[in-house]
UniProtKB/TrEMBL annotation:
It comes from Streptomyces tropicalis. Pfam families: adh_short. InterPro entries: NAD(P)-bd_dom_sf (IPR036291), Sc_DH/Rdtase_CS (IPR020904), SDR_fam (IPR002347). This is SDR family NAD(P)-dependent oxidoreductase. Keywords: Oxidoreductase. PROSITE patterns: ADH_SHORT. SUPFAM superfamilies: NAD(P)-binding Rossmann-fold domains.
Length: 254
């Protein structure tokens, strides 16, 4: 694994903290050259300084060109990690829905569009999508987040089935609760559903590296999510009843 990553050019978006910072640290420790991207320039610089990486602050949707310059023209691994945890229902404002779609889905599409020509020409490249278990299941109280994370998972799946025979590796990371600022922002819904089994960002990075070593598409830092996913597919009404029970519990505590 270390041999595969050593010297590789790696981009991690949303790497100023949380899962992104943990991924940047893990890749740097394995000998990769890491571009640290975040909207917050100070946080990007701090993580880059800590890891010996290169800070490229700014919008994750437009980072590829600058990252290619910083890495002498070659990006070997792209971690589409930046995301927004938009809560709300169908009544959330159109601006909320548009931002969730742009950051959680279209930023991934734009990065793939920019990187794939080079990867296909070389016959090698790795796209890592931080999705969330919400992309396989759902999350109460967060329609924009749940819907767009389903989109992010669908896009990662499509990339994998379309280009795996041409040397492109794709990984979809789908954790439940992770102790980050995003978890703190989920409020009472997160307290009910996510916080009891929350893990550290470093656990997510460990899970990704195990998945890369085993050449697995689906990365589940919470292994129990596999059972929930099977239940959702095999007995959807039973699964929906269980989720509705959580919804009612949440409504009673609000």
């Amino acid at each position: 694994m270390v041999k595969a990553v050593q010297g590789a050019g790696v981009v991690v978006t949303g790497a100023g903290g949380g899962i992104g910072a943990a991924l940047a640290r893990r890749f740097a420790a394995a000998g990769a050259r890491v571009v640290v991207n975040d909207l917050d320039a100070e946080r990007a610089e701090a993580v880059a300084g800590e890891t010996g990486g290169i800070a490229v602050p700014g919008d994750a949707s437009a980072v590829v060109a600058a990252a290619l310059d910083a890495l002498d023209g070659t990006v070997d691994v792209y971690c589409a990690n930046a995301g927004v945890g938009s809560g709300g229902s169908e009544a959330a404002g159109e601006d909320v829905w548009a931002q969730a779609w742009d950051v959680n889905v279209m930023a991934h599409v734009r990065a793939a569009h920019a990187l794939l020509p080079g990867w296909l020409e070389r016959g090698a490249g790795r796209f890592v999508s931080t999705v969330s278990a919400a992309g396989l299941l759902t999350m109460i109280g967060a329609a924009p987040y749940s819907v767009t994370k389903h989109g992010a998972y669908a896009f990662a799946e499509w990339l994998s089935l379309t280009y795996r025979h041409r040397g492109v590796k794709v990984h979809a990371i789908c954790p439940q609760g992770v102790r980050t600022d995003m978890l703190a922002a989920t409020g009472s819904a997160g307290d009910l559903v996510l916080r009891p089994t929350a893990i550290e960002p470093e656990d997510v990075a460990d899970a990704l590296f195990r998945g890369i070593e085993e050449d697995r598409f689906l990365i589940l830092p919470h292994p129990e999510v596999a059972g929930y996913y099977q239940a959702r597919a095999g007995e959807p009404d039973r699964w929906l009843n269980g989720m509705n029970h959580l919804q009612r519990q949440w409504e009673e505590t609000r």
